[in-house]
């Protein structure tokens, strides 16, 4: 008899499955389950969630209100709202992420964590990777800071820039993103899930 394994996905609207207008049923976790059929997946993504925020949407609240004892795997997919909508400095983003990783690991030392970097954004019709956000850092700088924190805890990092450089580009974002800015179409969510499943297989899953 195969024992069901349990994955919890923590994140913002991309994890939840928002397309810029509505929450999609055919979202990241829906498609991921098609590739990871022996896993039970809890989608804990909340629209507008951030690392540094203090509301029910955000990472700290999510970590405080979920029990991680029964999960073998957790994904952390945050950062885009810190860049676009928060003025907290990069040091605060890093510290808050580290604090919450520590909390999860203290609650369940055996859990496997996977960090997922933010997707590219195209606010204003341009690639935002080198544009400075409210916290006075670029998306590229955020990616590097998050990677540093994850690596400090020996957590593997899915970096879309390197594993799927052609997924979202200035040439295709108008068709791959439902709102032509940030939120994927159902087809793109399927592609994200395929890439994530492959990444998880490579790094952790038997």
UniProtKB/TrEMBL annotation:
Descriptive protein name: SGNH/GDSL hydrolase family protein
Keywords, comma-separated and alphabetical: Hydrolase
Domain SGNH hydrolase-type esterase intervals: 10-190
Keyword Metal-binding: no
GO molecular function: hydrolase activity
Pfam families: Lipase_GDSL_2 (PF13472)
The UniProt record lists the keyword rRNA processing: no
Regions that span the bilayer: none
């Amino acid at each position: 008899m195969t024992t069901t394994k349990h994955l919890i996905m923590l994140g913002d609207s991309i994890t939840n499955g928002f397309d810029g207008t509505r929450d999609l049923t055919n979202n990241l976790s829906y498609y991921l389950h098609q590739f990871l059929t022996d896993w039970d997946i809890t989608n804990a993504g909340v629209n507008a969630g951030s690392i540094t925020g203090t509301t029910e949407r955000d990472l700290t609240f999510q970590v405080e209100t979920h029990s991680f004892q029964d999960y073998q795997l957790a994904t952390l997919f945050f950062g885009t709202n810190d860049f676009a909508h928060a003025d907290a400095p990069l040091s605060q983003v890093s510290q808050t992420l580290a604090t919450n990783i520590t909390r999860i690991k203290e609650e369940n030392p055996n859990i496997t964590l996977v960090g997922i970097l933010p997707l590219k954004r195209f606010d204003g019709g341009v690639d935002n990777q080198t544009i400075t956000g409210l916290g006075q850092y670029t998306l590229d700088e955020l990616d590097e800071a998050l990677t540093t924190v994850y690596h400090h805890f020996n957590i593997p990092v899915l970096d879309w820039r390197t594993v799927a450089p052609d997924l979202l580009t200035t040439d295709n974002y108008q068709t791959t993103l439902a709102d032509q800015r940030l939120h994927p179409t159902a087809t793109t969510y399927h592609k994200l899930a395929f890439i994530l499943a492959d990444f998880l297989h490579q790094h952790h899953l038997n």
